[in-house]
Amino acid sequence: MAVKTYDPKDLTVMVNGVYLTGFGEDMAEFEKDEDGYETKVGAQGDVVRAKINNPLATLSITLLATSPQVSMLDKLAVSGELVPVSVIYNGEPKETITVTEAYIKKPAARSYGTEAGDREYEVQCLDADIS
């Protein structure tokens, strides 16, 4: 039996050419906004599959409140600027997500209390290439 080891330090996320640091526990999650295909069954049992060409996807990023990139992401959210995004996992299996146009949906919610809170960002990816 071959044992594999996952190391979160193998993850790199870049937004607008800047490496993100100070991740929270959840770090990053990527998901297509819609399925790739839709299936329909007719009254006589005929099946047709339709390709859905929606390229949109959402990247959720969780940073610690003390991350140096929090202010940059908040400013990008306010400006609505389209920026490139890259997610690279260098572990096994190696995975990459490349986006040439993305924007931060809104500034992160802020909470203050006895513990430092996380800052969560949703990045709308307009043209994600997954490999």
Quick structural gist:
The protein is mainly beta and 131 residues long. Helices cover 8% and strands 48% of the residues. Strands 1, 2, 3, 6, 7, 8, 9 and 10 form an 8-stranded antiparallel sheet that branches. The chain has a two-stranded antiparallel ribbon with strand order 4-5.
Structure keywords:
single chain; 131 residues; mainly beta; Elongation Factor Tu (Ef-tu), domain 3; 8-stranded antiparallel β-sheet; 48% strand; globular
Shape: globular
As residue ranges, the low-confidence spans are none
Number of strands: 10
DSSP helical segment count: 1
Topology pattern, helix = H, strand = E:
EEEEEEHEEEE
The portion of residues assigned to helices is under 10%
Largest sheet features: 8 strands, antiparallel
Polypeptide structure, described:
It is a single chain. The radius of gyration is 18 Å and the shape is globular. The protein has one domain: Elongation Factor Tu (Ef-tu), domain 3 (Beta Barrel), CATH 2.40.30. The protein has 1 helix and 10 strands; from the N terminus they run E-E-E-E-E-E-H-E-E-E-E. Strands 1, 2, 3, 6, 7, 8, 9 and 10 form an 8-stranded antiparallel sheet that branches. It is mostly beta strands and 131 residues long. The mean pLDDT is 94. 8% of the residues lie in helices and 48% in strands.
Q: Strands, helices and their partners?
A:
Blueprint: E1 11-15, E2 18-19, E3 23-32, E4 37-41, E5 47-51, E6 57-64, H1 70-79, E7 83-89, E8 95-104, E9 118-125, E10 128-130
